[in-house]
Each structure stands twice: as structure tokens, then as C-alpha cells.
Amino acid sequence: MLEIHNLSLVGITRPRLQGIELTLSQHQLVGVIGANGAGKSSLLRCIAAVEPRLEGEIRFNSRDWLSLSHRRRQQSLGYLPQTETPEWDIRIDELVNLTAQHSREQLDAHLRNYELLALRDRRVSQVSGGERQRALLARATITQPELLICDEPVSGLDVAHQLTMMQQLKTHAQGRGLVLVAIHDLALAARFCDQLLLMHDGQLVALGEPFEVLTEANLAHCFGVRAEWVCKTNGVGWIPTPLVTETD
């Protein structure tokens, strides 16, 4: 279980986070949504304990998360930041296996799950941005962390790989633990996430199942749009339109 109490984070001109209170249970895929600048990345950075100026309390599985050593946290945590460029031009299999040192057989099985087996011998400079993103996500999950934090992991991926990656995250949550993912595509979020966490101006606005969070009022307030939802048995889609401000 992840518990957050009175979490705040200062910013240059305004608070980046303000008084976040949050409790999340294990074995859930939780989508963190909100407009640009809402505080999604700031929240994930705080939970990943890479943001030094935070105030408040974070507990994971009854442990004081922030007081643990970096090494102890890394035993439970997988973290994929929003932008990451590998420092060395190493092979894809080396990049994915960097923190785990799995056997060839174990590594190949993991690479196959992320459709990277055919790319295993290529170097980072020899693959596309989307392929590199999949490799970084594979690296974040190779140790099967109990807490997995991903900041926009499907950005830059084509539609088919977006669906594959979201299903991978869902499967990881069901089998291993809690997964938090910042995501802009609300249709993907509605289809795959067990809960959605809606941020606005550094505050937590709503937390619940997708149908509870993606309301007409919340979409208008936090995104400035109204939406028509299309729901089918194999997924959902939406058609957003800007709110029109009436003037005299």
C-alpha cells in the first residue's frame, strides 16, 4: 500500500504540489492525468524520491519510504522518467539488463515480452525513439518491482505498441504490485487503468474509477473541453471539443 500525507513541493512562482493526501492499494494500474503543468511529473518524482525539496510523508508497505537508503528503495522501485537518454551507446540487451544481470534465457524471455528480441544486438543509436522507449520500460520492469512509476511511457510509440505497453503495465500491476503511469491519452487511460488520479494546479482533484473521474465537470474544469465518449466492448474512444465562452 502507498500512503501519502500532506505532500507539498515548492516552485519558483507557485507551489508545484499542495497538500496531497492519497492512499493506493497494491495490484492496481493507476493513471495520473491532467493538463500540462498540472503536477503529474512532480507527483511521480516525489514518489520516486528523486525530488529533494518535497515536504510531507510517503509510506510504502508500512515503511517510511523517504528514510530508506537509495539501495533499499531500488529493491522495490522501478522508475521510468519522462525523458531519459542513455549515456552510453550500448546494445539493447545490455541496456535492459543493466540493473538485473539476468541469465541469457531470462533476458531473452523479457525482451520477447516487449518485442525487443530482434533488436537485442543493436546499439541505442541504431534504434528509433519508440524502440528506445520500449527498451527503457523493459529495463524498469526487469527486476519485477513492487512499485513501478512511469512518466508518459507510451509517448512516441505507435498505436499498436501503445496498446501492447499498456497491457504489459496492467499485467505487471496484477501480478507484482502497484503501477503509477502519467498518461495524456484519456481513452487509453479509461480502457486500461483501474483508477485515475486527476491533477490540476498542483492539487489532487479526483481519484476513482475512470467513469467516476472522467466526468463532464472534471473535463471542463481541468482540460477546458467537453467530450463525447464512444464505448464499445473492445475499448473506448472520445471526441473532445473546446469549451466555448459566451460573450455579450
Automatic annotation (TrEMBL):
GO molecular function terms listed in the Swiss-Prot or TrEMBL record: ATP binding; ATP hydrolysis activity
Keyword ATP-binding (UniProt): yes
Annotated InterPro entries: AAA+_ATPase, ABC_transporter-like_ATP-bd, ABC_transporter-like_CS, P-loop_NTPase
Alphabetized SUPFAM superfamilies for the sequence: P-loop containing nucleoside triphosphate hydrolases (SSF52540)
UniProt keyword annotations, A-Z: ATP-binding, Nucleotide-binding
Pfam families with a match to the protein in the record: ABC_tran
Signal peptide: none
Segments forming domain ABC transporter: 2-226
Keyword ATP-binding among record annotations: yes
Domain of life from the UniProt record: Bacteria
PROSITE patterns in the record: ABC_TRANSPORTER_1, ABC_TRANSPORTER_2
PANTHER family: ABC TRANSPORTER ATP-BINDING PROTEIN, HEMIN IMPORT ATP-BINDING PROTEIN HMUV
Protein name: ABC transporter domain-containing protein
